[in-house]
Predict the structure.
Amino acid sequence: MRWWPLHPATGRLDRTPVSYWPVPAPASEPLPEDGPVEVMTTYRVPKENVARSLAAME
C-alpha cells in the first residue's frame, strides 16, 4: 500500500457532484400492461466455489 500526500489546496476545491452526461430519456413511456420484462444477471463464481454454487442452484 502506498500513501500519496494531498496538495494543500485540495481542501479548497469544489466538491459539488457533477453530471457530465444528461440522464437518458426513454423513447416512450411504458404502460402498466406492457411486458413481460426479461432480467438477466451474470455471476462470476471463483473456481473453488463452482461445485457449491451449482449445488445451491439445484
In short: The first helix runs from residue 50 to 57. The helical segments are 50-57.
